[in-house]
From TrEMBL:
<keyword id="KW-0496">Mitochondrion</keyword>
<dbReference type="GO" id="GO:0005743">
    <property type="term" value="C:mitochondrial inner membrane"/>
</dbReference>
<keyword id="KW-0677">Repeat</keyword>
<dbReference type="InterPro" id="IPR044677">
    <property type="entry name" value="SLC25A3/Pic2/Mir1-like"/>
</dbReference>
<feature type="repeat" description="Solcar">
    <location>
        <begin position="217"/>
        <end position="301"/>
    </location>
</feature>
<keyword id="KW-0472">Membrane</keyword>
<feature type="repeat" description="Solcar">
    <location>
        <begin position="318"/>
        <end position="396"/>
    </location>
</feature>
<comment type="function">
    <text>Transport of phosphate groups from the cytosol to the mitochondrial matrix.</text>
</comment>
<feature type="repeat" description="Solcar">
    <location>
        <begin position="120"/>
        <end position="204"/>
    </location>
</feature>
<keyword id="KW-1133">Transmembrane helix</keyword>
<dbReference type="GO" id="GO:1990547">
    <property type="term" value="P:mitochondrial phosphate ion transmembrane transport"/>
</dbReference>
<dbReference type="Pfam" id="PF00153">
    <property type="entry name" value="Mito_carr"/>
</dbReference>
<dbReference type="InterPro" id="IPR023395">
    <property type="entry name" value="MCP_dom_sf"/>
</dbReference>
<keyword id="KW-0809">Transit peptide</keyword>
<dbReference type="InterPro" id="IPR018108">
    <property type="entry name" value="MCP_transmembrane"/>
</dbReference>
<keyword id="KW-0813">Transport</keyword>
<protein>
    <recommendedName>
        <fullName>Phosphate carrier protein, mitochondrial</fullName>
    </recommendedName>
</protein>
Length: 418
């Protein structure tokens, strides 16, 4: 299509005619001077009033016959007081950039705020991850505190209910919120990379292996994309996780983030922030791989066998309910897979100078499973809430939400599938 947005015309009739005529001549020059350029949409910098009207956007579609532009201009000249260009369209969807030295804006499908796979899409997915992880982890801080204390001092905190009872008796209700600040900031940063980079790597790896292989090996695609994203996410999380665990589990340690960070650096240097990074990777990468791969497959199976109608016919609310259910199922498996490493991380930050292997040997096999039940409840609820918030943010921001994957037509022909 070829169109231009402008501001309302001046009230003076003669001025309107002259400015409209001048503007149409400008359009003729623009269209024919760029006839051979391949572009999507470009922004014309600051608004220009030299020709009597504000020029905000022009869109040219590669492959549209020039006759369309001619017919559009002829129609426009018949009436000098209306939009100079009528809407013209062509069937080609070959939106390829770029026009050198111009700011490119990706074309979006109707109803979407941006194009799937664009930089804006990835950035907004990262924002969804910030809200998703930051909010949910902070809300379950009391349960996380009791879980960590169960892992490091089972003699004192015998079970979940006893852990809450002892904490309330010693620190009051305020004590249940210990470590909320590093939790919020740490997991917000982690969510930025976890969800944002997952979308980046999923698209990148899909393009590398091709459409057919991306469908056939989609589980491996989900696993590799999520593992790559979590690798970087944990580098941002590790300093805050170290501060959180020490605030929650070390008796006599400071109670706020602003006190904890300089104290850790003073005592242990940068190693104090990153000595638990490897066990954090051991905990979080399997957790995230399960979280994304299990969620993606569960969503696919729910729509295929459980939901009584196709996803396209479901309302946004119904789709979010399915998202929550798939997220909870994924969360249960996440908790089980990552729990031993989680216990090691909690103990590692308690013992100065100990390595992950030292802690694992001291705990033993059964010791690494302490606190599993509260973690299943916490992670199941957490994962379900995260996926719900993330999907809701996508709906709210108008981001593309592709349906569950379907076999490409080319692959159907090769396999003889009708």
């Amino acid at each position: 299509m070829s169109w231009i947005t402008h501001q309302s015309l001046p009230k003076n009739l003669e001025s309107r005619f002259l400015k409209s005529l001048t503007h149409k001549l400008f359009l003729v020059f623009e269209i024919f001077s760029m006839e051979n350029e391949s572009s999507v949409i470009f922004q014309k910098g600051p608004r220009r009033w030299a020709l009597g009207r504000s020029v905000n956007q022009i869109q040219l579609v590669k492959g549209c016959p020039s006759k369309m532009a001619d017919n559009s201009l002829i129609s426009a000249f018949k009436n000098p007081f209306i939009n100079p260009l009528s809407v013209a369209s062509c069937e080609s969807n070959d939106f390829k950039t770029v026009v050198p030295n111009r700011e490119i804006i990706a074309a979006a499908a109707p109803g979407d705020s941006c194009e799937f796979g664009s930089n804006k899409y990835f950035a907004l997915c990262g924002l969804g991850g910030v809200l998703s992880c930051g909010i949910t982890h902070t809300l379950v801080t009391p349960l996380d505190l009791v879980k960590c204390r169960l892992q490091v001092d089972q003699a004192k905190y015998k079970n979940v209910f006893n852990g809450f009872k002892v904490t309330l008796a010693e620190d009051g209700a305020k004590g249940l919120a210990r470590g909320w600040a590093p939790t919020f900031f740490g997991y917000s940063l982690q969510g930025l990379c976890k969800f944002g980079l997952y979308e980046v790597f999923k698209v990148h790896y899909s393009n590398l292996i091709g459409e057919e292989n991306a469908y056939l090996y989609r589980s491996l695609l989900y696993l590799s994309a999520s593992a790559s994203a979590e690798f970087f996410a944990d580098i941002l999380l590790s300093p805050m996780e170290s501060a959180k665990v020490r605030i929650q589990t070390q008796p006599g340690f400071v109670g706020t983030l602003r006190e904890a960070l300089p104290l850790i650096y003073k005592n242990d240097g940068m190693n104090g922030f990153y000595k638990s990074l490897v066990p954090l990777w051991m905990r979080q990468i399997p957790y995230t791989m399960m979280k994304f791969a299990c969620f993606e497959k569960t969503i696919e199976l729910l729509y295929k066998f459980v939901v009584p109608k196709p996803r396209a016919e479901c309302t946004k609310g119904e789709q979010l309910i399915v998202t929550f259910a798939a997220g909870y199922i994924a969360g249960v498996f996440c908790a089980i897979v990552s729990h031993p490493a989680d216990t090691v991380v909690s103990k590692l930050n308690q013992y100065k100078g100990a390595s992950a292997m030292d802690v694992a040997k001291k705990l033993g096999f059964m010791g690494m499973w302490q606190g599993l039940l509260p973690r299943i409840v916490m992670i199941g609820t957490l994962t379900a809430a995260q996926w719900f918030i993330y999907d809701a943010v996508k709906v709210w921001l108008g981001l593309p939400r592709p349906p569950p994957p379907e076999m490409p037509e080319s692959l159907k022909k090769k396999l003889g599938v009708a």
